[in-house]
Amino acid sequence: MSKAETLRELLADGEELAIVCHNNPDPDCLASALALGRIAAAAGIDERRILYSGDISHQQNRAFVNLLEVDLREFDPESVRDRAENSLVALVDHSVPGVNNEVPEDVPIDVVIDHHPAEGIEARFVDHREAVGATATILTEYVSELDVAFDEVLATGLLFAIRRETLGFLRGVTRDEYEAARTLHDYADPDMLRRLSTPAVSGATVDAIADAVDNRTVKGSVLISHVGRTSERDALPQAADYLATLEGVETAIVFGIVDDEIELSARSTDPRIHIGNALGDIFGDVGSAGGHREMAGGQIPLGVFADLTASGTDAELVGIVARVVTNRLVSGLKLASDSGDSGTSGNSADSGSDAN
Questions:
Q1: Fold (CATH) for 203-351
Q2: Fewer CB in 10 Å around end: N or C, the chain?
Q3: CATH number for the segment(s) 3-197
Q4: Same topology for domains 3-197 and 203-351, yes or no?
Q5: CA nearest 181: which of 209, 203, 155?
Q6: What are the residue boundaries of the structural domains of the chain, listed by start?
Q7: Residue 243: Cβ-neighbour burial (10 angstroms; 0-12, 13-18, 19+)
Q8: What pTM was estimated for this model as a whole?
Q9: d(CA 259, CA 91)
Q10: Which domain of life is it from (predicted)?
Q11: Burial state string for 147-184 with b = 16 or more CB within 10 A and e = fewer than 16
Q12: Which residues in the chain land under pLDDT 50?
């Protein structure tokens, strides 16, 4: 049997399905969850839940949920630990319990569909394709093969997710993404796609991106910057996307303090660097980090700085975090101190000042 048929057979034996999104889900995760729910409904599962942890904070993610009316519920770890015998648990766009999700590590998983690099994946059904550009591509293939109906909402969500995940078919795109887009094109709503692509941007997001511009340090073709403390988690990848377009920059890494974590976002077009592996090597001992060759991220618990900042101010904390993280990146990426520093301002990481 094909992967799609094997999945349908597994779902047909279930009575409930909990589809767990990764923390702070993006359109690829949300659209994939929506599609898997439709496949489960066609297989006879009446009780389906899409669950998430973290925030729906990025303006595009909020627009996606609102315009497509995705029914999301907050994730309760106990709901998957103490589940009925015929209740299934699926992970889409992530693959390992406890990694970028709140799923307890000892919870057995029934379905995993993902395209991110990962090891140690265990589930009754696994479709893990690192080569494809988006998890939504895989789900589009399933929906088409299983003759599940494409309506405007589902097709628009999947097509937007593929476009967003591949930055408009420019990053990590494969033939499969083009094939999926061709399948979805006739069903998708062009007006809704435009509205999803151009949501309103909050002032706080603009401020955070401006801080990243001001605080940038360029060493050769690598740009490192920070936004200080921010409530706009999703401003980090937006800032990284923007700064990666600067002339001469091949790798852009932006970090900042969000709640009780240091968040990192990175973009790279340098063929010599696998930025996901690089971040994993640099920060794996103090947090979690990883991703693709061209796009990656990470989280470091702020508690690792507790002893250094127990009696300091928030401005001092930002300064210490900026220096330590920047120095780790410089050392880990083997950037010589004389490799052409440029573009720094008075609020650079080395100054230790608050970026807010």
A1: Diaminopimelate Epimerase; Chain A, domain 1 (3.10.310)
A2: N
A3: 3.90.1640.10
A4: no
A5: 155
A6: 3-197, 203-351
A7: buried
A8: 0.75
A9: 25
A10: Archaea
A11: ebebeebbbbbbbbbbbbbbbeeebbbbebbeebbebb
A12: 338-356
